[in-house]
Amino acid sequence: MQFVEANGARIPAIGLGTWELRGRTCARLVEQALKLGYRHIDTAQIYENEREVGDGLRASGVRRAELFVTTKIWTTHFAPNDLERSTRESLAKLRLTEVDLLLLHWPNPQVPLAETLGALAHVRKLGMSRHIGVSNFTVALIEEATAICPEPLACDQVEYHPYLDQTKVLEACARHGMAVIAYSPVAKGRIKNDPTLARIGQAHGKTAAQVSLRWLVQQNVAAIPRTSKIERLSENIDIFDFTLSDEEMRQIFQMGSAKGRLTDFGFAPKWD
Ligand SMILES: NC(=O)c1ccc[n+]([C@@H]2O[C@H](COP(=O)([O-])OP(=O)(O)OC[C@H]3O[C@@H](n4cnc5c(N)ncnc54)[C@H](OP(=O)(O)O)[C@@H]3O)[C@@H](O)[C@H]2O)c1
Closest Cα to residue 155, out of 226, 220, 64? Predict the structure, then answer.
């Protein structure tokens, strides 16, 4: 396993995304992932699976010190008292005394950012999270957040895969020593049938999905692919034994555009 280091955090470069994983399936996948060598698990309050993620963590038998667990605070809990209360609830569901990374899930212009970041920094000081960060923050919001947050931000978790150009966010995070954590790193499964990635993969004995994940990790970006299939857990972590050439990296960068976003921003704030 490789790690992405950012403002004191050491983030395992591949993690398991758990959006839409529910109930026993979720617990079983988390347990299996950890048995296969995953150490980074990504959940969120809004996924309604923190309890099952906690079950999977325990069933795996992996020592707490080896795990890197992220959860995200939903936007309705951004007022300071709500943020602290909801973090306590998340920890109770996960049955952890602290998470490794606690993120603001989406920007919420209805609550002043300074108040929310102050509360986030406060719960870190209370020992509820080792590191804090943001998700779905634009460049302008990264600049604003880093200027006002009393504690360093470890990351911005954003959609990133070969179809989406994220150069500006990558540059902004680098300026502030923050990691980028890529969500939807296999483009919600669309990568599987991509002819360019499949061709590049063939030369290395790898699948198109593995090429996409390797391309991210080779940029020092962490990635959190989700799968509901045990056999794909191994595929998605088996990316540390090959290297894409500069020319292959360049070809994949050429596939990206500003219009390649798959996430529906319909409910997102109009801050940009
Ligand atoms: N911060 C945020 O706002 C935010 C937003 C979205 C997601 N996330 C996080 O990021 C994680 C990943 O993003 P995502 O779930 O949107 O998309 P993703 O990981 O890019 O794609 C998941 C889909 O791809 C398929 N898949 C996974 N591995 C594959 C492989 N090797 N070959 C072919 N298909 C494969 C899965 O199908 P099968 O189940 O059939 O394998 C699933 O349908 C989420 O689970 C969540 O933890 C965060």
Answer: 220
